[in-house]
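Sanity check

After download, print the first record. It should look like this:
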Amino acid sequence: MHVVLRLVLLCLPLAGALASAQTVGVRPEETIARSAPDLRRDLEPLRLAIDQRLLLAQAVARAKWNVQAPIDDLPREAQVIQAAVRQSAALGLADAWVEAVFRAQIEASKIVQRELYAKWRTQQAGKFDDAPDLAKTVRPELDRITAQLLRSMADNQAVLQADARKAEVARALRPFEATALSPSAVEQALAPFAALH
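Expected structure tokens:
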């Protein structure tokens, strides 16, 4: 009897801590630091979304090159950011954070496109036979990636916005296949997740 009572008394502080965490809207598991393997696993969807978006910039560049379109498309960029902010509202993400992340992704994509344009000009490249249709093929894929990126940000919001975890997050979000395409674009895409708040 005394043993049972002692166990109950020992468990009361833990139960109180868990209840307190739930009261303020924090999941109990978020109060425990995630190990490096756990963090890498949890951030894998985010890493993939960023990487896929960067790799897709090659297709965007080919489509634009074929019609000699400018890389910058400010009205379209504004639409992409506004759509991401609207979608993020239901996920509880701050508008300013979402805007910063998507501005960085767009700028990273443009870095890839500028580097490819420079290479193709040097090569005097002609039109690409395999260039996709931006509206029918590329943008639906970008929409899918946007949804994945936002969901991953929401699922990992606490750790992504913790200044003390920035170095761990940066390690967990690597490697990128797109690094072979443009290291500077990768750094730009990761910038919002490395910046201190």
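If your output differs, re-run the checksum step. Summary of this record's structure: The longest helix spans residues 36-66.
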